[in-house]
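for the recovery benchmark. tokens below, seq after
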């Protein structure tokens, strides 16, 4: 009897979420992406991701330190591209916490667990979120926590090889690739067969002044 292929789907799955890599999920090659663990051409994943973001009630982009810190020209270009993508959807942006340890003195109450992505998802009622500019080690941890305890669909745009524990993951993310996703969003929104979801159903999303929960 052939064993059913493991799929990286929205949870909540379990308190102790198995690593997707341990379950046989592999990372895409250049020019590819993965959707729920299945390797697909990158353009197919672009369309799928754009459709998920458009149809979401509370799409949220979580930019991380690699694009929040304006430390080189590449980071600045990515940050501008992310803003264009957020405006095209439209989506909220909630920055990932600065999770660097603070040497030489560390406050253990803060630094033991500086990032609670599941709480951020719950309090903001996120149904689709996109990680970009988040260090790989923190993204891997956060994606597992989100999959374990929430029903949020996760998309990861990784500057390296991608993330197995995201429901959809791109690799080799550049400013140009982020803008391509924004173009897909605009193209699908213009199509009569795609209707954007009504954003902000009673939780403040879509309003100019909104409260977001970030640990």
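predicted aa per position
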């Amino acid at each position: 009897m052939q064993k059913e292929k493991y799929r990286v789907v929205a949870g909540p799955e379990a308190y102790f979420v198995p690593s997707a890599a341990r379950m046989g999920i592999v990372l895409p090659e250049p020019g590819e992406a993965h959707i729920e663990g299945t390797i697909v051409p990158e353009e197919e994943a672009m369309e799928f991701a754009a459709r998920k973001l458009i149809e979401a009630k509370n799409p949220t982009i979580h930019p991380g330190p690699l694009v929040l810190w304006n430390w080189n020209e590449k980071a600045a270009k990515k940050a501008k591209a992310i803003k264009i993508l957020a405006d095209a959807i439209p989506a909220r942006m909630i920055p990932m916490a600065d999770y660097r340890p603070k040497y030489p003195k560390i406050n253990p109450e803060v630094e033991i667990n500086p990032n609670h992505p599941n709480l951020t998802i719950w309090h903001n009622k996120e149904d689709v979120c996109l990680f970009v500019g988040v260090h790989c080690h923190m993204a891997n941890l956060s994606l597992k926590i989100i999959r374990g305890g929430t029903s949020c669909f996760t998309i990861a745009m990784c500057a390296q090889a991608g993330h197995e524990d995201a429901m959809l993951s791109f690799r080799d993310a550049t400013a140009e690739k982020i803008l391509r996703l924004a173009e897909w969003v605009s193209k699908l929104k213009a199509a009569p067969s795609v209707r954007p979801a009504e954003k902000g159903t009673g939780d403040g999303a879509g309003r100019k002044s909104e409260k977001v929960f970030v640990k």
